[in-house]
Amino acid sequence: MDIRTLIKEEVLAQRAYGVESAAFPVKLDANENPLAMPEELRGCFSAALASIPLNRYPDAGSPALAARFAQAFGVGRDQVMIGSGSDELIQMLCTAVARSGAEAMIPVPTFAMYRISAQNAGLTVAAIPLDGAFDLDLAAMRERVAARPPALTFLAWPNNPTGNCFSRERIEAILAEWPGIVVVDEAYFHFSGRTFLPDLNRHENLVILRTLSKVGFAAMRVGFLIGPPALVHELDKVRLPYNFNAMSQAAAGFYLDHEETFLAQAEEIRRWRDELFAEMMTIPGIRPRPTDANFIFFDCDFAADRVYTRLKERGVLIKNFNAPGTMRNFMRVTVGTREENRRFIEALKDIIA
């Protein structure tokens, strides 16, 4: 039997999301927080995890935790859903709206899981290239909407991999004009400081995503969806009964208990980001793009594939986006510690010398 005859065409046509499996001394490819949990908090965190009854299911739907974060976000409890990272919440959204012929709109380049989740759910994907400044091409998006209104539009803010925040005015126009759900993914809010949370009650089609993955809890997979109560109510039917494990629930609560410590780490990373950006600006043939995130998107006058490979040979892993067209010779480097950033810069200079 050919197993492929049983698989959906949308799945057969895809490539799996690629993650570099090898270990590297300097890992700057995944937009993680480079700082470990402070030593003074580790004992408390271990105790919190040790108290979890592993023989019992976690709280279904995480109601107590959702109420705490709703208060932190300044919204109602019925406006918050917690998932196993933003990825699961993206998947829920796609599953819920995947009627026959439904479409999801994404600007490109952007976070790969929007396309993957939409296609896996059976949605058609309308990929609209960004303009020359890596901002939303509102005219092209409007043209597509006029021909075929999307059920979902995903907007990463700041965008990954380009690092910039799309024009607020263009997003507001989309929220005002689009008939479908508009998802503003604020995964990098802790580094941009910009949010659409105050706009939730003005737009009944607005959904916001947040995560703790970028501020020290990537291993725990904590994601938040904040949106209209009616939508959260329907998504709760799509959510698996025990989708968010007990250890991650404890970790998310621990984050709130000690949020100031993790926000201080984010502030330090922003300083290192500015230092790294300034250093990259001094390297001939390297062009970093202004960023609102914890990474820097840059292109170069050199063969990106060669630079990427030579960096790996020196123990430095970044993300290679090199592709024909607008992405030619583009790469992305996560902001690391000062020592990691120094090793990246030294290796980069040595390679292109």
How would you portray this structure in words?
The chain has helices at 9-12, 39-50, 63-73, 85-97, 112-121, 138-147, 168-177, 189-192, 229-238, 246-257, 259-281, 304-313, 338-352; strands at residues 26-27, 80-84, 103-108, 124-129, 152-156, 181-185, 206-211, 222-226, 286-288, 295-300, 316-317, 319-320, 330-334. With 353 residues, it is an alpha/beta fold. It has 2 domains: 3-37 and 260-352, Aspartate Aminotransferase, domain 1, CATH 3.90.1150; 51-258, Type I PLP-dependent aspartate aminotransferase-like (Major domain) (Aspartate Aminotransferase, domain 2), CATH 3.40.640.10. The strands form 3 sheets. A 7-stranded mixed sheet has the order 2-8-7-6-5-3-4, with helices on both faces. A 4-stranded antiparallel sheet has the order 9-10-13-12, covered by helices on one side. Helix 4 runs parallel beside helix 5 (112-121) and helix 11 (259-281) packs parallel to helix 13. The longest helix has 23 residues, at 259-281. The termini are far apart.
The unreliable regions are none
Please tally the helical runs, counting DSSP H or I stretches of 4 or more residues: 13
CATH class wording of the largest domain? Alpha Beta
Measured on Cα atoms, how large is the radius of gyration?
21 Å
Query: How big a fraction of the residues is strand?
Result: 15-25%
Shape type: globular
Percent of residues in helices comes to 40-55%
Question: Brief overview, please?
Answer:
This protein is an alpha/beta fold. The protein contains 13 helices and 13 strands.
